[in-house]
Write a structure and sequence with these properties.
147 residues; alpha+beta
């Protein structure tokens, strides 16, 4: 499906990996996790819950940090094959958080071509979506010098 993996491409660092997984398409993420799950053997669920986390922001004018509010998240933490996996996504989708934890655990054992291909595809898709969003926002920009 995602056969564009270059074996010479370095593996994703853990931070960017989690960032991509947290924003990845839920259906494709769950499908990948289901394919990886048999290789992990028995999975111990350490935590699977929803909760609220504070959303920190920075006032760029005064340079101070503040909490904008609380955000509902789903969180999963698993242990399998001698490693741990973690997933947190915005909303209450525990299945998606668990899929993220499974892929994280599998990736910590070694980023297979399937995992790297998935990450590359999702990173490209997210970058394109971000660019499109920025273009739409840019179109609404008001030049205050004209007023």
């Amino acid at each position: 499906m995602f056969d564009q993996t270059d074996e010479k491409t370095p593996p994703f660092d853990h931070g960017p990996l989690l960032e991509i997984l947290a924003r990845a398409d839920a259906t494709r993420l769950v499908a990948l996790a289901e394919r990886l799950l048999p290789d992990l053997g028995a999975v111990e669920v350490i935590q699977s819950r929803t909760g609220l986390v504070m959303l920190p922001m920075r006032d760029t004018v005064q340079g101070t940090d503040f909490h904008l509010g609380e955000v509902l998240v789903a969180e999963a933490h698993i242990r399998a094959a001698g490693t741990e996996g973690y997933g947190m996504v915005v909303g209450r989708d525990l299945e998606r958080a668990m899929a993220m934890a499974v892929v994280d655990a599998a990736a910590s054992l070694g980023q297979t071509p399937e995992i790297r291909s998935f990450l590359q595809h999702e990173a490209a898709t997210l970058a394109a979506a971000d660019t499109a969003r920025l273009c739409r926002v840019e179109a609404t920009r008001v030049d205050m010098e004209t007023f």
